[in-house]
Structures are given as C-alpha cells and as structure tokens.
Amino acid sequence: MQPVIAIEQLTKTYASGHPALKRIDLEIHKGEIFALLGPNGAGKTTLISIICGIVNPGGGRVLVDGHDIVQDYRAARSKIGLVPQELFNEGFESVWATVRFSRGLFGKAPDDLFLENLLRDLSLWDKRNARILELSGGMKRRVMIAKALSHEPSILFLDEPTAGVDVELRRDMWEMVRGLRERGVTIILTTHYIEEAEEMADRIGVISRGEIILVEDKDVLMHKLGKKQLTLHLQRPLAEIPAELASYPLELTDAGNQLVFTFDAQHEDTGIAELLRRLAAHGIDFKDLQSSQSSLEEIFVNLVHGR
Amino acid sequence: MNFYAIRAIYLFELARTWRTLLQSIATPVISTSLYFVVFGSAIGARMEAMHGIPYGAFIIPGLIMMALLTESISNASFGIYMPRYSGTIYEVLSAPVSYVEIVIGYVGAAATKSLVLGVIILVTARLFVDYEIQHPLMMALFLVLTAVTFCLFGFIIGIWADGWEKLQIVPALIVTPLAFLGGSFYSIEMLPPLWQKVTLFNPVVYLISGFRWSFYGVSDISVGVSLAMILGFLGACLLAVWWIFKTGYRLKN
To answer: Which residues of chain A make contact with B93, given a CB cutoff of 8 A?
Structure first.
C-alpha cells in the first residue's frame, strides 16, 4: 500500500545550530491513527511543522499523497489540516468569520451548509457570532479544530490536542477523531498523554532527540515490550530477600511488605509456580497477590531513558 | 492561482478596517483636516502664493501624500505583524497559497484602505480650500502607485519587526520627518542652494512634487523623474518581498 505520507532522510538544523531532526525516515499509512510520542524538545512539532509548510526543511524530502511538499506544495498542503499545539487565534474575530476565512485560504469555494454542520458537530454553532476572545479555553480549542477541518482535509495533524483540556472535551475529541477515521481521514497526533495513544492509536512512533527510535503497531509494541509483574503482599515484612532466591528478579518494596517479581509474559514457563513453592519452603507467606502488565507509559519511559 | 485564498485574505483584512472605522479612517481624516483648517484657511490667507498657487491649495497634494504614506505603512505593517505576533500566521504558511497570492491579499487590502482614505481626505479638503485637478488620470496613477508601493514597504516592515517598538520606529523616526521635509508645506526653491541639493536624497520630495503637478501643472522636479523614482522604489520593495519569501526570513524558521 502506498503511504499517504512518506518522509525520507529528513533533517533540520535551526540557525542556533540545534539539530532538531536527524535523518528521519517514516511512513504513515492511509486511514490510520498514528501517535507520535516523545519528550519535550524531541522534534515532534518541528517534524509536523515541516510537513505542513510552516518551517523550511533542511535536507531530505517529504511526499504527501505522492506530492512533494516543496515542489508541489499546493497539492500537498490542500490535503492537510493542522491543529497546532498552542491556541493561536484572531481574538477580535467571530467564530464564523474565522472558519470561513480558513476554508477560503485553503482554496475551497464557500459552503456555508458544510461549515454550519461542522460547527454543530463541534458544539460551536451557538457561539458562531461570539468573538473568539470571549470563549473558554476548551471552546477556543474547538475553534482551532473547526478551522483545520473547514477545508475537508484527508490528513489531520493534531499537535498535543488535549493538552490542558478537561476530561469531557478530551472524550469528545477522541470520539471526533474516531469518527474522522471512519470517514477515511488519516490522523497523526502527538501527545504527552500516553493513555491517549494507548486508547486511540493504531501505530505508535517514538521520537527522541531528533531521531525516530521506534515505529510499531500499538498491540505488537505492548505485547513485545510489555513486562508482567507479580506483586505479593506479605504476611510479615522481610528485611531482605533470602540469598537462595537471589537468582530471581525480585524486588522488595513497601518497607519489606511487598515482594515484586518481574517475568516475561511471552515465555512458556513464567517461573511463577516454582517461585511460589520456594517461597513456601522458606516460610514466606502472603495474604494477597496481583499481577499487572506494564502500560504504554512505562514502555515509553523505558525506551527513552534506556538510550 | 488560488483566488479563493486571495479573496479570503483580502476580505478578512478589510473587515478589520470596518471594525475599527474610527481609528483607521476617522482619525487620519480628522488630523489631516486640522492642517487644512490651520494652514489652509487660517494662516494660509496671510501666506504668499507659491508658483502662483494660493498657499491653502498648494499644501493639499503634500498633505494627502503624507497621510497616504503614513497610513499605508501602518496598515500594511500591522496587517502582517498582527498574525505573526498572535501566531495565527501558521495557517497562512500552511495553506496552499503562493507568496504572490499572500502579498496580493495583504497588500491589496491595505492599499484599498489607503486609497479610500486618500479620496475621503481629498473630498474633505474641498470643504475648506478651493483646488483644481488638471491631470486627474495622472493624479489617480500617483495615488495608486504610492499606496501600493508604501503598503509593500509597510509589509516589509511588518515582517522585519520583532516587537511593537520596531513597528513604530520606521514610520515615526523616518517616514514622518521625510514627509515633513519633503515639500508638503513649501517649494524646494525656497531652500538655500545647498539644501536644495540635499533634499533631492529624500524620496518623498519626488512623490509630492509629482502629485502636486497632477493638480496644478507645476512642480519642483520634472514629472517623468518623479514617476521613475516611485517606480524604482516599487521595484526595490518587490525585490525585498521576493527575497523575504525565498529565504523564509522571519517567517519560516
């Protein structure tokens, strides 16, 4: 399948000498939700800004639906909608005027019915004549989304879409994103909220210090890198792990009241049965036990810090 | 050509003008009218005629030019600086529009506003002072060329400025003095010989001289030279804008 966005050997060094992107190669599939994760300053926003035409690329090239973003920028950009991270807006303008402006700017004929439906979908229709500066932060965020969708893009970039957004709006946005995907829109989102990626994404890319360090299907990633842990709540606290058990990956926590065993969930013999037998032989009783799988957040932290 | 985009930018910018009608139209019209009242009607009657033209009528072309210059620069610089300042420029940069279309939209809207203002001041002046226009087509040409050129100049300032102060510096410290010393209120012939030479380095002298010629058929400098100068300045501004977009200066990095 031809990728809807193909990034080849993309580099960017800012005038300050800071290398923001180092030879990025990445393909985004048509119709998927792709989550780009990375710590602050990793290059997420620079990458998006280059694809959208806001920042000049250094080297390499980017194709959007087969169109080069520099040579054939009109065709490339007309397919893209962008919701930037910050709430930029023309405070004195009305919601309606600013959304109509965006549609025209992207070369689309006026279509008031389409825009009305869009504003209704985003619960903005009642506010259409309000000046943007009068709106709440969440409403301003919705206006940004409405602007990005005003020209019916087939690719949508959401740069930290739910930063500083309340729970209700976050749920609404997740719904909206799913609805867009059902209509065939490709969505690329960057986020700090790993649960968001976990909840929404089909594939996940991790960027760190200007390099893509991993791209994987979310499920595969969770499966491959996820660790399982068994936590035993002990009857009596232990001062230290008995020397005979030193070969096990065990850890004492909660002032010796909990014993945590980390194991590979993919391995046929997890070693749990043997461990429990040996604990009993040492007279270590427990009153409760639970097992847990590492979240995407833990995987992410391990990836970024493990480098 | 993305005509919808040009239209969107143009109308959006003009809408800002109508929203701030008092500031953008009424203020310059009133302040220029004060010159007509004071120098035209009140003091003008006691001044000598210049090139055979009553003083009140003599200063009208220069005053209109002065208002046109300052307003063109401030409209256009504000028009592009504002989205840079607020961050909304991201949308224009990410849109499928060419640089030419962006410039036509922003500069076109600012120039339209300046021309409307120039015509209002011209009509208002008639309330206070009698004047004639011998070459109306040339007058219109000077008006349009000046509005477009100085809107382009303002656009460049709006991109160069990285703070509100810089946005004000060029109009206040360079353009206003040049306009005052550009022969709005006097004929160059009244200056001492040395200053007659020095004043020729002031580009505004050519604008006012040419514009005054279109009214009364007399000028300090030949009208052909005036036209050539303004066209030269227009060319220089176009070159600067081309360079800005080619390099992405202050826009794309």
So the answer is: 52-54
A40 shares contact with chain B (CB less than 8 Å): no
Encode pLDDT of B94-150 as tens digits: 999 999 999 999 999 999 999 999 999 999 999 888 899 999 999 999 999 999 999
Question: E strands of chain A, at which residues?
Answer: 5-13, 19-28, 33-37, 59-64, 67-68, 80-83, 155-159, 186-191, 203-208, 211-217, 228-234, 250-253, 258-263, 286-293
Give ∠ CA B9-B26-B61 in degrees, rounded to 5.
95
Chain B contact for A77 (CB, 8 A cutoff): yes
Contact status of A70 with chain B (Cβ, < 8 Å)? no
A78 close to B (CB below 8 A)? yes
Supply the mean pLDDT for chain B. 91
Measured in angstroms, the CA of B77 and the nearest CA of chain A are apart by 17
The three-class DSSP label of residue A72 is coil
Cβ-Cβ contacts under 8 Å, B83 against chain A: 90
Domain boundaries, chain B: 3-247
Q: Is A63 on the interface with B (CB under 8 A)?
A: no
Residue in A38, A18, A35 with CA at minimum distance from that of residue A304: A38
If DSSP codes are grouped into helix, strand and coil, which group holds residue B88? coil
Per the listing, tokens 């005053």 go with: B63
- Tell me the two tokens of residue B115: 């021309």
Q: Count other Cβ atoms within 10 Å, centred on residue A259.
A: 24
Comparing CB atoms, the residue among A56, A89, A103 nearest residue B253 is A56
Is residue A67 classed as helix, strand or coil in its secondary structure? strand
pLDDT, mean of residues B37-53 = 82
A109 with B252: Cβ contact below 8 A: no
Compute how many other C-beta atoms are within 10 angstroms of the C-beta atom of residue A244: 10
Does pLDDT of A294 surpass 70?
no
**If 0-12 CB within 10 Å is exposed, 13-18 middle and 19+ buried, where does residue A243 land?**
exposed
Which helix (H) or strand (E) covers residue A105, if one does? Answer: helix A95-105
Tokens linked to B14? 């003009």
- B120: CB partners within 8 A, 6+ apart: B25, B29
Q: Which residue of A has its CA nearest to B92?
A: A105
Tell me phi and psi for residue B156, to 5 degrees: -65, -45
> CB-based contacts of B160: which residues, under 8 Å, 6+ apart?
B166, B250
Please determine, for residue A87, whether its predicted confidence score (pLDDT) is greater than 90.
Answer: no
- From B90's Cα to the closest Cα of chain A, the distance in A is 6
CA distances from A91 to A108, A154, B43, B92 (A): 24, 28, 46, 17
Residue of B nearest to A78 (CA): B96
